[in-house]
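Dear colleague,

Thank you for sharing your sequence with our group. We've completed the structure prediction you requested, and as agreed, I am returning the results in plain text so they can be pasted directly into your records. Please verify that the sequence below matches your submission; if there's any discrepancy, let me know and we will rerun it promptly.
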Amino acid sequence: MPVAETISSQSSRTIPTRWGSIVFAGKVWGLRARRLWIDRSATVRRFEADTEDLTSWPVGHELESPLWLSEDPRERSFEQGKVQNLRLACASLDGIVLEAGDVFSFWKQVGRASRSRGFVVGRMLQQGCIIPAIGGGLCQLSNALYGLALTSRYEIVERHAHSVKVPGAPIHDATVAWNYVDLRFRVRQRTRIVATMTENTLTVGFRFHAAVEGGLATLPLIETAIHAASAQSCSSCGEGSCFRHEPR
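Please find the predicted structure tokens below.
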């Protein structure tokens, strides 16, 4: 698979309306309630981290992706927020162990991204737009986990693609939105998840007791967006007719 891929242009996006956003919010609350009801009898659970030395877990598969994707200064605060959100989410993932047959749920493990837990404003794709949102940017982590699950040939129980492709996003993506849009997969063997960050890079890996063929790879990314503006948030998209627009 190539390291990068270009997505051809499509028609321009529809400018969101206030009424459309109200309807969307109502649907979201309904879907959240439905998820809570369904998950009452679900087998998904939260896993605990293992303190065992990593040397006993040979590297299976790892993916790394860059943390900083935009050079636009207007987007810097959102990227900083994303990095903070990823740091908190990684802390809830790093070291957890799943037994063969266990189902991993992104939201069951990470929990709701709220201000009270330290999550901040990042960027989130919603209704075809990249908007400021608490916990924005966590899809970079779910994307990596999905890529690893595919590489490990795990059963994908639930996965949702983004509605719009943007530069820096992986070709095979998995969006998440609390709690009704989740990423879930069933592991085939005892698996330890490793999630670490450096100043510039997010690295996520699956490790196994039994050695497997694998190594470090770079998540295949999209180079060109469907829309030139789709890589920008409400702070820089320039859509003055949108109700979210803030004059500068």
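Summary note from our side: The CA atoms of residues 124 and 136 lie 5 Å apart.

Kind regards,
the structure core
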